[in-house]
């Protein structure tokens, strides 16, 4: 397996920073939704979500990513408010789910580093005002034209993700060969970087996400993983989220048309995140934190021995 050298840098987050590159940082996922593909409904109650978040921190998470709207394939995430294809979750409902959890975590752990997973500028603003430090935008600034300006105003950390199309289109996206995949992802991330630059977001505030599963079909994801280190040429660290993704479930399945259930994908998730680290990821976004921390430690040891 080819490995890629990660540069050591500081990720600037609203007056503080996180060191990236010396070791892999683990971002724990907290889904405050009734319909997440992974654990829908388990943490919709604010008290349950806060308790889960604190448990992930106890297990070794370096930071947390909180999401209150599912972007699973087929959802109406990214739709236009007021239209027939408006998002199922309005900005108001998203904030009603999200903000009590942000505040609850920070009351218990004032120094916790919180990311909010949203593509809505109004929700990003509300979460940042409540104390979040990072905005994780799965659309890479494409679905809400005000998002980049809000991030620049607050000086927060930003994670623009590459997304190919919208969730309602993902199941019908044509497959791409490896070269086309890399060209598409790189061009999309370059567009996000240009938008960030126009808005006045500092480069030191940006970490890029290739967007596994977001408009990539099946083996497209493995083509991306195999060549992921090429994206380091964009000059920013990489955050990778492969945890429990459906392409892993299809690889484990006995037949091509049936994926193994989410609960049976943990070992595959650890294998994929290890590959992602060896191909240049500085952060991994995961559901099962303890296993990820241990896998990252081993992968980091491999990189250190180069």
The beta-strand count equals 9
Give the proportion of residues in helices: 25-40%
At the fold tier of CATH, the topology name is TIM Barrel
| Arithmetic mean pLDDT | 91
Radius of gyration: 18 Å
Proportion of beta-strand residues: 5-15%
**Mind describing the biggest β-sheet?**
7 strands, parallel
Q: Which overall shape is indicated by the principal axes computed on the Cα atoms?
A: globular
| Highest CATH level, the class | Alpha Beta
Summing up helix and strand content along with how strands pair, one would put the structural category as alpha/beta
Supply the CATH architecture: Alpha-Beta Barrel
Looking at the chains present, what oligomeric state does this protein adopt? single chain
The stretches of 5 or more residues where confidence is low (pLDDT under 50) are none
